[in-house]
Amino acid sequence: MKIFFVTSNRNKFNEAKDIIGRNLEMASLEIEEIQNLDTAEVVKFKLEEAYRVLKKPVCVDDTGLYLDAINGLPGAFAKHFYGTLGTEGLSRLVSLYGIYSATAATSIGFSDGKYTRIFTSKVKGKISSLPKGKAGFGFDSLFIPHGQEFTLSQMDISTKNKFSARGKAFGRLKHYLASKRMI
User: Fold this and answer.
1) pTM, entire model
2) To 10 degrees, the CA torsion angle through 33, 36, 40, 41?
3) How, if at all, do strands 24-27 and 3-6 pair?
4) What are residue 59's phi and psi, to 5 degrees?
5) Sequence ranges of the domains in the chain
């Protein structure tokens, strides 16, 4: 079964394909996003829209960064914070408070018209005082998963998938799809 991952981000697609395998296809489709701090709520809306348009098995994702320094913000608005402040700005913001702990969360939604599921994974970690690494995107060059020495940007794709919230959520989706014999 072909599953269409609705994203225009080639890096996200490559990470997901590394986990799901050859059954995953990329579908660039502009989908409206609701504004909500909770990644699962954002994904529920995106998933309904994606399936309504494509009418094929689809998955969508949303990732949030919850900084303890600013009471869990930016959450699912991480993309907007990153786009406005950049990695250096996010790092400076956190350093103003001296509280570097954070949680990354990713929700993955899947629908084939018959089954609809949402998988959310959260990874605790900390924010690096400086961006490190060239790979990845978004806040990857700042986020160091708990128990690790390197940012997600300093890891190769397979290692990153073991420690990132997105990798863990896609792993749960893969397990579900395999249990239903869809892949």
Assistant:
1) 0.93
2) -70
3) parallel
4) -135, 150
5) 3-179
Q: Is 175 exposed, middle or buried (0-12, 13-18, 19+ CB in 10 A)?
A: exposed
Tens digit of pLDDT for each residue in 44-87?
Answer: 999 999 999 999 999 999 999 999 999 999 999 988 888 899 98
CATH architecture for the domain at 3-179: Alpha-Beta Complex (3.90)
* 146, 123 contact by CB (below 8 A): yes
Q: What's the one-letter identity of residue 170?
A: F
Interval 97-106 mean pLDDT: 97
Would you mind telling me the total number of residues written for the chain in this entry?
Answer: 183
Catalytic residues: 62
Instruction: Kindly give the pairing relationship between strand 58-67 and strand 3-6.
Output: parallel
Question: Look-up: residue for tokens 């060239």?
Answer: 134
